[in-house]
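I hope you will forgive my troubling you with a question about protein structure. The matter concerns a single protein, recorded as an amino acid sequence and a row of C-alpha cells. Please examine both parts with care and let me know of anything in them that strikes you as inconsistent. Here, with my thanks, is the record as I have it:
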Amino acid sequence: MNGTIAASAVKYVLGASEDPERLARETGLSDHELPSRVPADAVDELWTRAARLNGDPDFGLTLGRAYQPGTFGLLDFLFLSSDTLAGAFGAAVRNVGVLSTGGSYGWSEHDGLVTLSRSLPTQNRHAVTFLLGWQLALVRVAAGKPITPVHVGLAMPAPHRHSDLAEAYGSPAVDFGRPANSLTFRRSELEIPLVGADPVTAAMLRRRAAQLLPAEESWRDRVRAYQAQHLGDLEAAARHFAISPRRLQELLKREGTSWRRELEAVRGDLAVEMLGDGSLPTAVIARRLGYSDERAFRRAFRRTYGRSPQQHRGGA
C-alpha cells in the first residue's frame, strides 16, 4: 500500500482509543517516537485495531461525527480561512500532502452540481467514513450553517446497515463500492462566503504549506496520468485539479512543455497500443482518441513516429 500519513493524524487516532498505550504497543506506533510520516499500511492496521479495542464497529464514523475543526492544524486552517467553499476545497486539493500522500483528489462539475472526490491508499472502512465526516465538519463550521451534500459516495463495500451513515452525512443518497470517496454539493452552495475568511492569514498559511509539502509528481506527470484516463480538454483537466486553465498552462510551461504537447504524446502511446490490436480499424482508433477524423489521426501519428498508422501496424 503506497502513501504516508502525517504524525498528527496518527496521534489523533491513538488519542481517541480507550487504551492508547495498549494500542501503541500493538501497532508499534508510540506517540512519543513517531516519525513525521507513517506508512499508510501501518495506519490501516491502526484503524482496525483501534476499532476492535474500543468495541466500536463504527469507530471511524464516530470520530468523524465528533471531529473538531482545527485539530489537524495547517490543512484545517487553510480550509477555514478561504473566501468560499469552492476556494476552501481548492486549498484542500492543492495542500492535502501536508496531511497524507497517496491516492488523489478530483473535482468535477455537471448540471449545477460539484463533486469533490478523494481516493485513499486504503479501503479501510474506518478511514473512509472518518474522511468524509472530517470534510463535512470543516464545511459546516466554515459556512457557519448546515450544508447537506446531495450525494455521498464511499469506496468501500456496503455494510449490513448504513442508516447511521446517512444520518451522519445528512444525505439519504449514499452509495457504496464507488471508485473514490466523494461529496456532491450544489454549485451555488460552494459560493457562500465563509465566516472565517481571512485572505492575509490564508496567504501566510499557503506559504507555510508550500514549505512542508513532500516532494511529489511533476505537473507533467499528473497531466499525463489524467489524459491517459480521460483525454479531456484543458478546461475539464483544470477543474479536476481545482485550478484555472491558465494556471495549469503556466505550470506546464515552467516544466518545458504544454497541454497540447502532452496530449499528443499520450495519444501517440495509446495509438500504438490500439494498433497492436489488429481488429481495430484506424477510423475507430481515431474516434476513441478524440481526433476530428481519420485523416487528422494519420497526420498526428506521422508527426510523432515518422510513419503512418498502417505502416506501423505492418511493421514497416
